[in-house]
User: Fold this.
Amino acid sequence: MSWAWLALVDQRPEDADAAASVRDIAGEPAGVLAAWRRHAKPVRHARRVDARIVDPQGAAARVSLVLPPAGARLAFDDVAVQHARRELLAGEPFDAVSSLLTDDSHFEGSILVARGADTGRLADDPFARVFRARLLDVGGECSAASRGPPAR
Assistant:
């Protein structure tokens, strides 16, 4: 599997491989979701994401972005994380799914991508029981969302 970096930033980075404006579900601007396909970490708070969900030509989507609070670290094999994974895999697939990582052993969040009628299912994101989720609408002008099979 190849990895990319993903971060929610204040402004569109010129060096990002994909970036899209983001709004919260109330319609208020919430920054830019940016992705970079490179080895070096582009910004301090970036997380590794499955590179298959990065599509510079992707259509607009709603995402559930789960990030841990500052300073929180949870082992990837923690029972809560594994239970959330099992719940997610047992349900209908989303347009794209990826864990977010900073290393090989810690869970640093997740992203679920949905379009159309499936957006309502994001409210029951199993990873939102591990850490708080933000529901965000990602613009279609250059979004970080896949049209292909879900990455798991």
The chain has one domain: 3-138. The first strand starts at residue 3 and ends at 9. Residues 142-152 have pLDDT under 50 and may be disordered. Strands lie at 3-9, 18-24, 29-36, 47-50, 61-66, 74-75, 96-101, 106-114, 133-138.
